[in-house]
Amino acid sequence: MVRQNMHQQVELEYLKTDQCPLGDRQYSFFEMVYLISGKGTVCINGNRMAYRDGNLLLLTPNDRHIFEITEVTEFLLIRFSDSYIRSYPWKSIHHLECLLFYATHLSGCVMRCKDDSRLVEMIVDSLLFGMKLGGVYQQDLDMNLVNALIVIAARNISKVRPENVRTNTDKRILQIINHIERHIFVPDQLTAAAISQAFGISQAYLGVYFKKQCGETIQQFIASYRIRLIEWRLKFSDLRINELADEFGFADGSHLNKFFKKQKGMSLTGYRQRLL
């Protein structure tokens, strides 16, 4: 596996290749991958899905990924550091880094809005044109275009977060949510006792505080978040039920199916068949 680091806060690279597979890579930075053309499969953190032109992927620090190319593919690779996200004065999106880190659980195209997809295509065309043109102020223009892509990606990622969570909510709640998102596959870290201990607050206060800020109990939030990720896997991966159960910390496929049916009113198989 190749591990790569950045030398600048923001870097752009155009790549056209038929190499199969394209690396087994792990980064210490964020990378947005725009698929200009081509077909194949991408595997992110063990989750496989087909890619096609127009897809925008967001790889977060420490994600492992590999592209298996079946048709010559053109990529625009946009890399930026987490320190860049923390230092840039974003005006309307609070805790942007936490939001972007959520993409590590999505493992696929982050775009949910067709209008935003068209906007991304225009921005990518502008970046590609600028890479050919060069000249004075081009770097400044590129930075602003990259910032626009980051905000668009964050806006689309936010559409799959639980609805009751506001992006401008209390900072400690965002830290608790970040803890839940990072440990969603480790049930022992998601108990009220474990979360209370991690943040130095009592279990009784944690329950009241979380519900006041988010409009639902912490266990409802965890269940909703887990369901959203399971739905994502069912839509965009070919994992078997027992593999999903193992990934999300369930004893077996039967326990996972019971949990899913309670939340969604249908079986995992029924949900997946409905997508066909």
UniProtKB/TrEMBL annotation:
Keywords: DNA-binding, Transcription, Transcription regulation. PANTHER family: ARAC-FAMILY TRANSCRIPTIONAL REGULATOR, HTH-TYPE TRANSCRIPTIONAL REGULATOR EXSA. Residues 177-206 form the HTH cro/C1-type domain. This is Transcriptional regulator, AraC family. GO terms for molecular function: DNA-binding transcription factor activity; sequence-specific DNA binding. InterPro entries: Cro/C1-type_HTH, Homeodomain-like_sf, HTH_AraC, HTH_AraC-typ_CS, RmlC_Cupin_sf. It comes from Pedobacter nyackensis. It comes from the Bacteria. It holds the Pfam family HTH_18. Residues 174-274 form the HTH araC/xylS-type domain.
